[in-house]
Amino acid sequence: MQESACLEVYPTLISLAGDPGSYREVEQTIESKKSALAALLFPALKAAYVAVTWTRAEIRSLRVLNALQTHVAVESKEIPKLTELGLPAETITDPFNGEPLHVKKTPHGWLVYSVGPNFRDDGGKLDAPTNGDIGVGPPPPAAKPVEKKRVETGIPQ
Asked: 93 with 108: CB under 8 angstroms?
């Protein structure tokens, strides 16, 4: 009985490899299989699916960023609708929650991101590798260098 519940997960994952649904749907499908064996395999299956979905989110974000840089004037303050960029619908969809990717205009350029596996919009915080958003954007502004004060030690240099 446990083996059959576990084996039922695999066709679902195999079918989603070619035409994935949102990560949330897949996670709920895997978690619905209530068996000890499925519970043991779940962390590995989830990690594999997160890795694939993470990469998909980065690629989609990059594709949208390229379209923004190609189709939108640099001085434009308005954020265009993703559907107006001429990209296929699946490339503008967040693979984690099935909603449109998020786009922000920052003083340094465009920021395009997915909510990531925590399903929460963290405002485009891309520097938290496990709990933040996933996407692409301008590098953060460089921190001002700390001025070092010279301390006289009395020792010849």
From this structure: no
- With contact defined as beta carbons under 8 Å apart, do 68 and 80 qualify? yes
Residue 118 makes CB contacts below 8 A (sequence gap 6+) with 131, 132
Residue pointed to by tokens 């925590």: 118
The model carries a pTM of: 0.72
H/E element, 112 = strand 109-114
Helices in the chain by DSSP H: which ranges?
Answer: 2-7, 9-18, 23-31, 36-71
Contacts of 60 (CB under 8 A, 6+ apart): 91, 92, 93, 94, 95, 101, 114
Q: What is the pLDDT of residues 83-108, one digit of tens each?
A: 999 999 999 999 988 899 999 998 88
User: Which burial class, exposed, middle or buried, applies to 130 when counting CB atoms under 10 A from its CB (0-12, 13-18, 19+)?
Assistant: exposed
How far is CA 2 from each of CA 21, 46, 77, 144, rounded to the nearest angstrom?
Answer: 26, 19, 56, 58
Specify whether the CB–CB gap between 113 and 101 falls below 8 A: yes
Q: In the predicted model, is pLDDT for residue 1 greater than 60?
A: no
- Check residue 77 and give its pLDDT: 80
pLDDT tens by residue, 13-51: 666 655 556 666 766 766 666 666 666 777 777 788 888
